[in-house]
Write a structure and sequence with these properties.
With about 130 residues, the protein is an all-alpha fold. It has one domain. It has 5 helices and no strands. The longest helix is centred in the C-terminal third of the chain and has 35 residues. The radius of gyration is 16 Å and the shape is elongated. The relative contact order is 0.16.
Length: about 130
Amino acid sequence: MKPNHILQLNALATAACAAGTLATRGLLPAHFGLATPFVLDVLAVGLLVYAGALAAAARRTIVDRSTLLIFAAGDGLWVAGSAVVLLLFWSQFTPVARTLVIVVALAVDVFATLQYRAAGTSKARTLEAA
């Protein structure tokens, strides 16, 4: 899979997650032990910004290694943050919220891995060209 396609797919999945969060803002807060949707709204807006950055990077003719590594690191931080949130708030989350956090973290980990591997492939191609 080409780096552009990985970033495009990540952008689409991230935007879909944000849209889903906003669309269910009346239902989700209670599952996460929240009184209002404010925290989830802020998170969703942040995800939309991240999706925009992914889409912008995917439009480049050549996606350089550093761009792939930056997004791989960002996604890796999301996965680590998800683990911390689950550890800290496990008892406040319903099984639905726990499942959502775990499933999204697994999907994000797949993108992080694909981006990291593509960055390694990009380095190899660059070395071959030199």
